[in-house]
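Private note to self, pasted from the team thread so I don't lose it. Backbone tokens:
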């Protein structure tokens, strides 16, 4: 609740304005009751003519106009606060997801995050747009009514003071239950969305492993569980409306009885006062009853807000980048890893004290068994994750002194499965650089990546749509699009995560030639499995279980590291098969 209050107090001015409006609204309600009583008293008891009550009727119209205007404006302000808070929250969530994208992508499911960003934030709406304005109305208006009623007739005031507290007490008890259920509902919605998206993404795997029926059952279970929680919340809402209605009806009945006794039996009360009170008492309860309805939505909304705000409390360690910009280099920089350590949260894996230096235009191969930490090391060099201890130096300056953007401009990262966006081939290649590039440059990059000959015969050539909205690409073709992106960018450092793994020899050869070409102007750091890539490297980093066992050339490592020799033997046997 603390964090939620803070989000409201950011809009302090609007909140004060809302308070002012509510006070005017309360006064308008009292004035309306007074004018209506005067008209009824004038016409029925004092037998006044129609023309005598015309000024009262005009006043009544004016008051009704003021009352509905105040009501409209206060709701409008609530909507404005809600839209500001939702906008800010979405921006903050996106910033968190973007600034820490690599760790967050690995943590939790994508669908869960999408659901939080869209549905979770939307659910927060009614807290600001309805609950806050209604809470103000339901505090100021009943207090004002109570003061007026008590000054007119103390007994009626006492009846209200005794009966009315049952409504907020009941709402608090129910509200706590609703909030818990609302949190549960959002969790279930997030889990359902995550499951749904995961099913869509893994549809082919699910079909191939004949898991369709099981997956369908799981989705159904998740969806039914979400439906049940939603229905439980509705059940609470209906019970709440019934109980509040009952309390207010009883209380109004008691007041009416008391007024009748005072007028008829004791003759101690005027008709004017009794009628005024009879009009004001339902208004008193109407504000409280409306709070009941919005209170229910508000608590649901608070549950959602709590879940969303919890995301901000989750600890993460995004890379803190500096403000310096890398200068233009003639040749690639020297890269030094100094005692670099890294651990993933909740795992036993640790990359321990990796120290190495990479010199301009060298070919570096990172080798080791599966799970040794090769990709992790590549991610560290790319700046996607930050060393826990130790540091990375670029031309003797710590990498994190520079801006992330200026570092990303210097490198190209080619992963095992590069992402192809929905769009044309040309657009996909062009995203390799942030500069404006023409079709000629795109074609030249495709030529160097060895993919131009595949694209040109297509009916629409470079304008052929690929990705989700168009035709698919093979792994080798995707790799080549990715390498074309690198040629367009002209980076000083190329990071490759086993780009030729699983490709046929002909495609591998084309890719090797392209990488060789990139190496003419850039340092190439490759996570390598193929003996060919390993043998040709100027420097090999041999990792085992997160430890850097040895660094050197192929020949030197064969001499000094039996484990490396064993790895090479396995590779040889595999390539001979
Ligand atoms: N995001 C993550 N969160 C937690 N643990 C992770 C994460 N990514 C990788 N790991 C773990 O860290 C270890 C090293 O992973 P890494 O991907 O760096 O190995 P690798 O040598 O590249 O393996 P492979 O050759 O199979 O790709 C593994 O045990 C892996 O399970």
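Design output:
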């Amino acid at each position: 609740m603390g964090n939620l209050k803070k989000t409201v107090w950011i809009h302090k001015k609007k909140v004060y304005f809302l308070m002012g409006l509510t006070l005017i609204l309360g006064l308008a309600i009292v004035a309306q009751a007074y004018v209506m009583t005067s008209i009824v008293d004038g016409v029925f008891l004092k037998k006044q003519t129609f023309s005598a009550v015309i000024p009262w009727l005009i006043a009544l119209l004016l008051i009704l106009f003021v009352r509905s205007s105040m009501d409209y404006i206060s709701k409008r302000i609530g909507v404005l606060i809600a839209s500001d808070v939702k906008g800010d929250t979405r921006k903050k969530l996106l910033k968190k997801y973007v600034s820490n994208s690599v760790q967050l992508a690995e943590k939790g499911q994508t669908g869960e995050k999408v659901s939080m960003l869209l549905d979770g934030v939307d659910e927060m709406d009614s807290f600001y747009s309805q609950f806050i304005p209604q809470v103000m109305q339901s505090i100021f208006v009943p207090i004002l009514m109570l003061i007026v009623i008590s000054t007119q007739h103390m007994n009626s005031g006492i009846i209200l003071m005794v009966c009315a507290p049952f409504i907020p007490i009941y709402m608090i008890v129910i509200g706590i239950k609703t909030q818990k259920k609302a949190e549960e509902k959002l969790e279930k919605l997030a889990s359902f969305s995550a499951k749904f998206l995961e099913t869509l993404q893994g549809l082919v795997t699910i079909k191939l492993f004949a898991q369709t029926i099981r997956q369908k059952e799981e989705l159904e279970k998740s969806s039914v569980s979400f439906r049940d929680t939603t229905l439980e919340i509705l059940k609470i809402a209906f019970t709440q409306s019934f109980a509040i209605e009952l309390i207010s009806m009883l209380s109004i009945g008691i007041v009416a009885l008391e007024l009748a006794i005072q007028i008829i039996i004791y003759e101690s009360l005027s008709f004017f006062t009794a009628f005024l009170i009879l009009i004001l008492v339902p208004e008193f309860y109407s504000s409280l009853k409306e709070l009941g309805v919005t209170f229910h939505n508000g608590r649901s909304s608070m549950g959602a807000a709590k879940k969303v705000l919890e995301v901000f409390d989750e600890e993460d360690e995004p890379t803190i980048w500096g403000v310096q910009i890398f200068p233009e280099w003639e040749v690639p920089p020297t890269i030094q890893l100094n005692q670099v350590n890294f651990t993933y949260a909740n795992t036993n894996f640790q990359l321990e004290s990796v120290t190495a230096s990479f010199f301009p235009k060298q070919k570096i191969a990172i080798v080791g068994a599966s799970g040794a930490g090769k990709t992790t090391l590549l991610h560290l060099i790319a700046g996607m994750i930050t060393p826990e201890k130790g540091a990375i130096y670029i031309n003797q300056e710590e990498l994190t002194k520079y801006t992330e953007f200026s570092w990303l401009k210097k490198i190209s990262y080619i992963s095992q499965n590069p992402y192809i966006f929905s769009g044309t081939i040309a657009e996909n290649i062009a995203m390799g650089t942030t500069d404006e590039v023409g079709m000629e440059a795109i074609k030249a990059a495709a030529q160097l990546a060895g993919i131009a000959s595949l694209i040109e015969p297509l009916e629409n050539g470079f304008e052929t749509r690929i990705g989700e909205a168009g035709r698919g690409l093979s792994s080798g073709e995707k790799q080549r699009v990715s390498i074309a992106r690198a040629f367009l960018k002209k980076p000083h450092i190329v990071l490759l995560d086993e780009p030729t793994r699983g490709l046929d020899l002909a495609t591998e050869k084309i890719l090797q030639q392209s990488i060789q070409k990139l190496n003419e102007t850039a340092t190439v750091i490759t996570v390598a499995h193929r003996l060919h890539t390993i043998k040709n490297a100027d420097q090999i980093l041999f990792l085992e279980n997160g430890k850097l066992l040895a660094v050197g050339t192929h020949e030197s490592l064969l001499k000094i590291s039996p484990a490396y020799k064993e790895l090479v033997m396995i590779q040889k046997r595999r390539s001979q098969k």
